[in-house]
């Protein structure tokens, strides 16, 4: 009978090595494997995922049911092993029924870390095939992250905000405008920690702040032209590179002018979000690149400020941005 954790782990390890043999498991062995899949010890459940490959040879549907029965809420290692078998192994995500797929995503919403490569591979497939389900899972994850005591990187890996590193990038999806619209609608209802994480999620999903994404932000803002809408879009731009402030200056000027019309508190919030744009990426860059980028930002901001009417809040913003870039250049040069 099962119950001794050390013995159960040895049994699970033996069946986990099952893919190395071509002998089909007996009915009794399959029953034992299915019992081990529900074992309270995470090490046992993690090892037994490999046994699915052996069952797969004779009963594909049963192997899928086995993997779906393995709980991994609260354990990223077990999650990685289960999802590797379902998305990278012989099963294939298309073979997983919708109810099972939703159950997996619900568990991931409560998983303490989703940065493991097999989990990212699974999410990349979900992003391609079922993007709405992906968006819903990530929003739920962020909503409950503080109550679970996760840090920011656990909730949403920082690397995902970098364009080439996001497994959940939907930039080329034909419904990008709708998907980002759903995100922005939700982001407008958040506050504090969730707003910061939500902005990172927008960056991870958008992939880049090019003309396509800026047009979507403009369109959404046009339909939500109030203080909350302006501050929501500004919070998204917090994760954008500094080049956006120069390349998309017409949009930035319009955003600042709108913020000014909603009062000084709104303008302060928007300026704060825009100032944040690019700072982190510059700080993480090499010395030579930082100096060149700061000089480009300084000169570009000065050029834009000179073309803006004196009373526009955007003129003061770009002047302050140029001064900040100048100070950062001097600081970097003094190191």
Features:
mainly alpha, 21 helices, 335 residues
As a percent range, the share of helical residues equals 55-70%
| Biggest beta-sheet profile | none
Query: How many individual β-strands?
Result: 0
The residue ranges in which pLDDT falls below 50 over 5 or more consecutive positions are none
Beta-strand content: under 5%
The helix count comes to 21
What average pLDDT do the residues reach?
A: 88
Q: Characterize the overall form.
A: elongated
Radius of gyration, rounded? 25 Å
**Secondary-structure class:** mainly alpha
Distance between the termini: 66 Å
Element order: H for helix, E for strand: HHHHHHHHHHHHHHHHHHHHH
Structure characterization notes:
With 335 residues, this protein is an all-alpha fold. Helices cover 69% and strands 0% of the residues. The chain contains 21 helices and no strands. α12 packs antiparallel against α13. The radius of gyration is 25 Å and the shape is elongated. It starts with a helix and ends with a helix.
Set out the fold topology:
Layout: H1 5-16, H2 27-36, H3 42-48, H4 51-56, H5 60-68, H6 76-88, H7 98-108, H8 117-129, H9 131-143, H10 145-148, H11 152-155, H12 176-187, H13 193-206, H14 211-223, H15 227-237, H16 243-247, H17 249-261, H18 264-276, H19 279-283, H20 287-306, H21 313-334
Helix pairs in contact: 1-3, 3-6, 6-8, 7-9, 8-9, 9-12, 9-13, 12-13, 12-14, 13-15, 15-18, 17-18, 17-21, 20-21
